Amino acid sequence: MKAKLGLSISRKSERGSVLATSTLGMLCFLLAVGLGVDISRLYTAKTELQNAADAAALAAASGLNGYTKGITNATDRAVQVMNSYNFNKTSVVFARADVRFAKNLDDFDKGLDVSEVTASGSASVAKDIRFVKVKTPSEPVVVTFATMVLGANRNLKAEATAGMSVPLNLFNGYLPVFVVDNNDGTALVPGQMYTFRGGPQSSVSPGNYQALAIDGAGGSDDREGLASGVKRIVGAGGYVDTKPGVTSGAIRQGINTRFDDYAAGMDPAEYPPDTNIAEDISYEDYVNGSTTKSPSHTGVAGRRVVLIPIVKINQMEGGRTEVQIDRFGAFFLRSKVSGGNGGDLQAEYIGVGVVIGSGTYDPSAPANPGPPITKPVLYK
């Protein structure tokens, strides 16, 4: 009887300890779950903030052009992109002072980077700027469950550095037309106009009006290629087919999308105009913003800066044939194409390094002769 009574008392005392242990275990479990939820939310918020910084840095790098106005454009683009992001359900307030510039990538680590005011204050400084860094302001994120471990909130920030790539030697996004190099030892001159599609009276060989059959042979391929650039990747020394005929309608419709002029079902959402559609201006006027005209549709900066293959005159033969590309050059479209077959279509040779964003670098491929053509690259 005593043995049974002792066993009963022992079990009753154990019930209290099990309850306490279970309660403590449940509290630890809930704390662990809450900590996991908060850490996951912090990680997601940090990723969103970093994505915003990366996008802002790339947008800024795309504005660099060696001119003082390019520094201003780069800062404008960084601020616009960053402030368009919502972070933790609120807009990020991003200041122009959070954008820094440098000639060399390691200048940021050495404290040799400069502000927008310094970079844009001198043409000699602006021409050497190749990199841009953005830093987001510190943004608080409220901690919901694990305040005992993490505190009431955590401040997050991010930074990103972007800049010009190494000079590209393989390209896409170029126009399916070409400029003729007369192979007379005379270099193309920056600021001068060059024919990229000959008129009916000035074909370079029978039936050859300087159009290329790259992504396709139809008129719609010309139209789309001139509106957005072709997809096929090729570099200096590559071979492409020429296309006989003037194809004036398709060429006009494709190029004119860049001037906010649409026909043949061209969609401004797919083929946006440039942000400045003022005609009869030079590239220098364009980058300095001395003459501007806004499009009626949402524009994209740099749409009038185009890549065009350059072909030696000795590559020309009658009819549809294959020609070898000597190099690629950056050109500026001063005006849209008028109606009819018209005369020669021309663009201004830029002749300085540009950030154009279409192409890649292959160490085994030949270098592209001439001024460097680069694209925006995220470095860190």
Can you characterise this structure?
The protein starts with a helix and ends with a strand. With 380 residues, it is an alpha+beta fold. The model has no long low-confidence stretch (mean pLDDT 82). It has helices at residues 2-61, 68-83, 107-110, 116-120, 123-126, 147-150, 219-228, 248-256, 283-288; strands at 86-87, 90-91, 99-102, 131-135, 139-142, 153-156, 159-164, 170-171, 179-181, 193-197, 208-213, 234-235, 239-244, 305-312, 322-324, 327-332, 345-349, 354-355, 373-374, 376-378. Helix content is 31%, strand content 21%. Helix 1 (2-61) packs antiparallel against helix 2 and helix 7 packs parallel to helix 8 (248-256).
Defining key terms:
single chain, 380 residues, alpha+beta, five-stranded mixed sheet, four-stranded antiparallel sheet, 9 helices
How many helices does DSSP assign?
9
Main sheet strand line-up: 9-14-16-17-10
Per the principal axes of the C-alpha atoms, what is the gross shape?
elongated
Structural class: alpha+beta
The portion of residues forming beta strands comes to 15-25%
- Overall pLDDT level: 82
- Return residue spans where pLDDT drops below 50 for at least 5 consecutive residues: none
Percent range of helical residues: 25-40%
- The H/E string reads HHEEEHHHEEHEEEEEEHEEHHEEEEEEE
Q: Give the termini separation.
A: 79 Å
Query: Whole-number radius of gyration?
Result: 30 Å
Q: Biggest β-sheet: count, sense, barrel? A: 5 strands, mixed
